[in-house]
Design brief:
Layout lengths: L6 H4 L2 H9 L13 H11 L1 H13 L9 H4 L1 H5 L3 H24 L5 H13 L22 H17 L7 H19 L16 H17 L3 H20 L10 H22 L9 H7 L1 H4 L1 E3 L2 E2 L13 H11 L2 H7 L11 H9 L14 E4 L4 E5 L9 E5 L2 E2 L11 E5 L2 E4 L32 E3 L7 E5 L1 E7 L3 E7 L10 E11 L4 E10 L6 E7 L3 E3 L3 E5 L3 E9 L4 E11 L4 E10 L6 E12 L4
Antiparallel strand pairs: 1-2, 3-4, 4-5, 5-7, 6-10, 7-8, 9-15, 11-12, 12-13, 13-14, 14-21, 15-20, 16-17, 17-18, 18-21, 19-20
Helix pairs in contact: 2-12, 4-7, 7-8, 7-9, 7-18, 8-10, 9-10, 9-11, 10-11, 11-12, 11-13, 16-17
Length: 615
């Protein structure tokens, strides 16, 4: 047995049924009737308790947000995601606030508002998100997606906390709806796109969120040990594939955002299974523990992390998630990171809003100091830090990989540079999402954030990188020492035949003695001379001189010098009012252009932090 991944071999349905026959759910979170526990929670919260109750007072006066059929169909008709999803999310965000306010106060003032929301959610034709199931619902064939699974868990935890005090009919209604919408289809079907790996496509964070929500709801609601065992055993098949898709160092090509989201629900599931089984079900294999450590190895700064794939610039982790992992797995480094993360968007929903009150970071923990160097071998990632003890010091993150990764962007050979506590050369991260955004064959790579023109990679013969697993890097060498870190890649294969390449090698290194990043592209064309340029991406202003440029940061600058060839020309493309997921920015592409066609050549660039004003 491969104990690192094969959870299904350890926890078959028969074994699980025996375990759950011996235990009932206890010791997870206190019910609202446990006034001592909730009064203590309120005292720990300080002023935040009053803010939640005041917000609940306002929300209790508002009607439940409407979700008419035309709002649901807006995504299908217009391609816009936010408009149709917002009232669905608002219902769940309000439920979190009203349930927690009632638990904290214990006076019954918010029960009717909770009842209206719970009943309205139970009456929704579908618990899916419009972007995932854009047609009006087929009531006889409920679909299971992220939204359905999360809703099942949200209602289950609202029922655990308040139960029949909402109304005597509520517990049965919740159980009936969760069973019909989640348990029955999950047990009956094998065709969920998120459930298992299939030829040419690996499952991603969806598997952990969907299984986490369904299994989590099962630990609260399902009283038949055999049926609960069957639900969990089936989920373990999916989790084997999910865990197996992380590399040997615990890395994921989905990067930080989807680790936080997907592995967060894996953590919730693992915690609830431990509680429901009296500690007999333990999902924390050696590999899962390495995955849990991912934030420790992907840190750029105190509140900055590698943002490859669909991770937005400035992403931070969910503090209660890291705090619980730190305690459960005895990883003090995760607590050090958790203590310095700001409040998180995920706290707006019921599961994380509840855990924010009980999975508490130790705010006295010092800031985490990462090592000089981290590496994820299966991803071909390298994170190199000039001086981890200095939050202003130079940090390089670079990647190879292939162009059919999870939440893929065509970015083989991409890199970012941070200094002065700022993102200076960036990965644009997550774009403004619409219907085309996740359609690999239908427009995803029309978005600059997803195609190679939006990344700091070469452009040979005017060609972008191709989409597909075959468009990949080959690792030539990787070295780490106190003097330097270097990642050398053959990225010829990332480009289509139209690029005409015989060779394109990229060397990315951090020279600790010089305090600089050096990037060298060595290229040759196969049949005829060709054009070549290399690109650097930033959101900050450039000043361009003769063979050099200066990126103007808020606290310091970044000097870019083209060491060879001597006749390289620097040109700047600017795209103002460019939409990212959560903000509008100006994207700046510094193009290092070789002026004449050539059969072969080399471009070498040095990137060095300098104090404000370029000195």
């Amino acid at each position: 047995m491969k104990t690192d991944t094969l959870l299904q071999e350890r926890y078959g349905s028969g074994t699980l049924a025996e375990i759950f026959g011996r235990h009932s759910l206890a010791g997870t979170f206190p019910k609202a009737t446990d006034r001592a526990a909730w009064d203590a929670a309120g005292e720990r919260m300080g002023e935040e308790r009053g803010r939640i109750i005041a917000e609940a007072e306002d929300l209790a006066q508002l009607p439940v947000p409407a979700v008419p059929a035309t709002v649901w169909l807006d995504f299908k008709r217009s391609g816009r995601r936010r408009e149709g999803q917002l009232p669905i999310d608002q219902r769940r965000w309000r439920l979190r606030t009203l349930v927690l306010a009632e638990c904290l106060e214990g006076k019954g003032r918010f029960l009717d508002a909770v009842l209206d929301l719970v009943w309205a959610i139970c009456e929704e034709s579908s618990w899916c998100r419009p972007a995932h199931d854009p047609d009006l619902a087929d009531m006889e064939n409920p679909e299971v997606d992220l939204g359905a699974a999360m809703t099942a868990l949200e209602l289950s935890e609202a029922d655990w906390l308040l139960g029949a005090s909402i109304d005597p009919a509520v517990p049965k209604r919740i159980r009936d709806e969760v069973n019909r919408r989640c348990f029955v289809p999950f047990l009956a079907r094998e065709d969920f796109h998120w459930f298992l790996n299939r030829p040419g496509k690996e499952i991603n964070n969806w598997a952990a969120v969907c299984c986490g929500g369904i299994v989590g709801a099962g630990t609260y609601l399902e009283t038949d040990p055999e049926r609960l065992g069957a639900i969990i055993a089936k989920a373990m098949r999916s989790m084997d594939d999910y865990i197996g898709n992380f590399d040997e160092d615990g890395g994921t090509s989905e990067a930080s955002f989807c680790w936080d989201y997907g592995f967060g629900y894996f953590t919730i599931m693992a915690q609830l299974l431990e509680a429901r089984s009296g500690g007999e079900v333990d999902l924390w294999t050696p590999k899962v523990r390495r995955i849990a450590a991912f934030p420790m190895h992907s840190q750029i700064g105190v509140r900055r992390f590698v943002n490859f794939a669909d991770t937005h610039i400035g992403f931070t982790y969910n503090p209660p998630h890291l705090a619980w992992l730190a305690e459960r797995l005895e990883m003090r480094e995760l607590m050090q990171i958790a203590a310095h993360q700001p409040p998180h968007q995920r706290a707006k929903n019921m599961p994380w809003g509840l855990r924010t009150l009980f999975w508490l970071p130790d705010l006295s923990a010092p800031e985490y100091v990462p090592p000089l160097h981290d590496r994820f071998r299966g991803l071909q990632w390298m994170i190199s830090r000039l001086d981890p003890t200095d939050p202003d010091a130079l940090v390089l993150a670079a990647k190879g990989g292939h162009n059919d990764e999870m939440h893929n962007q065509n970015d083989v050979g991409n890199f970012t540079v941070d200094a002065w506590g700022e993102a200076l050369l960036v990965d644009l991260g997550r774009g403004a999402i619409n219907r085309k955004y996740y359609q690999n064959g239908g427009g995803r790579y029309d978005f600059l954030v997803n195609n190679s023109l939006g990344h700091s990679v070469p452009v040979p013969n005017g060609q972008q990188q191709g989409f597909g697993r075959e468009f990949a890097a080959r690792l030539i060498a990787h070295e780490h020492s106190e003097a330097e870190d270097r990642l050398e890649l053959d990225i010829t294969g990332a480009y289509p035949p139209e690029a005409g390449l015989a060779k394109l090698d990229r060397l990315i290194r951090l020279d600790r003695k010089a305090g600089a990043v050096e990037v060298t592209d060595s290229y040759a064309f196969a049949d005829a001379p060709g054009s070549f340029e290399s690109v650097l991406i930033s959101l900050l202003p450039f000043e361009i001189g003769n063979g050099a440029a200066l990126i103007r940061g808020e606290r310091g600058d970044l000097a870019v010098s083209v060491d060879e060839p001597a006749d390289a020309r620097l040109e700047l493309d600017e795209k103002p009012d460019f939409p990212l997921e959560s903000e509008t920015v100006t994207v700046r592409r510094l193009r290092i252009v070789i002026p004449e066609s050539s059969e072969a050549g080399r471009v070498r660039v040095t990137i060095r932090p300098v104090s404000a004003g370029g000195k």
